[in-house]
Amino acid sequence: MTPNFIGVTGLPRAGSTLLCQMLAQHPELHCEGHSSPLCNTLLGMRRMVSDDQFFLSQLDSSFERSYAHLMSAMRGYLRGWYHDCEKSAVVDKNRAWLHAVELLLTLAPEAKLIVCIRELGQVYGSIEAQHQRTILVDFIDHLADFDRLGRADMLFANDRAVGAPLVSLHAVQDLPEEVKKKLYFVRFEDLVEQPAACMSHLYAWLGLAPFQIDPQKLAMGVSESDSHYHMKYLHRQSERVVKPKLHAIPPRIQTQIETACAWFYELYYPKK
What we know:
Blueprint: E1 4-10, H1 16-23, E2 29-35, H2 38-50, H3 53-81, E3 89-93, H4 101-107, E4 112-117, H5 120-133, H6 148-155, H7 163-170, H8 177-180, E5 183-187, H9 188-193, H10 195-205, H11 251-260, H12 262-268
Helix pairs in contact: 2-3, 11-12
């Protein structure tokens, strides 16, 4: 049996580690928890074969056959990644899945994506707070020398840790309705305030049997590497769900974030 594919994607510091920890509790799901290279390798495969002279030389005379070879190979790679999975569905975490959602659905039409989001000021605040705890170590993209406002600007740039997934989120509105139906958005605030209810609704959307988690007694999974990210983006697991304290954000930075990303607040955090 080929397991259904579930991707976990979205913003950094938005609860994907906690979400995967709770998804792993369900007996029908195979969820390893840590970030997976599967999406990156599929994107790399597409780039490589698109420049391969032997593949390109076949397209004029036998496009359908050559394209079918590629489709079969990429589908086989995706399915083969979890060849030993004996559950009904497999969960794969990578922030790039939202960017590559239409590629994913071509290879695995049954796939669904869970998109983790969080109020953007608190995303920035979480990253900045961790930087202050590890200030003697630079970011992987060398942001330590910037002041706080400059660091916020860089984090939200289109090719950086917060900005890149935001670009993918902004592009959701341009997707066909059939693709949008494959996306489920989980707000971090809902996940930590009402974890049992949130997960119950999510399990139902995924088509899984009802399952009640105990937010005060979570099983611990494999820890993800944090040194790879220079200890700036922690992926710590906990035996229970704990609502974090709000980070104090300088008003100038909060205003700049809300102004630049007004569309995000209108869609996911509308004013009551």
